[in-house]
């Protein structure tokens, strides 16, 4: 999977995610990334592996780029 494909996949999944706690954990990962060193906990690594497994197995539903953009515009109220 290319970097562009991975980014699109993540954006699509984020747009569909409703769990504020989970989204907060993702935000924490980004915040840590901005620091000088990224150190994932074992639980975080396990969760990331599970996300990757679901993606590769096709368990998660994905939307087209157009649908993702429409959803983003709706979420932003544009």
Give a summary of the structure in a few sentences:
The chain has 78 residues and is an all-alpha fold.
**Secondary structure: number of strands:** 0
Question: How much helix, percentage-wise, in residues?
Answer: over 70%
- Major β-sheet, in short? none
Q: Report the mean per-residue pLDDT as an integer.
A: 85
Note the main attributes of this structure.
4 helices, 78 residues, globular
Write structural notes for this entry.
The protein is globular and about 35 Å long. With 78 residues, it is mainly α. The relative contact order is 0.14. The model has no long low-confidence stretch (mean pLDDT 85). 72% of the residues lie in helices and 0% in strands.
How are the SSEs ordered, and which strands pair?
Elements: H1 3-16, H2 20-33, H3 42-57, H4 65-76
Helix pairs in contact: 1-4
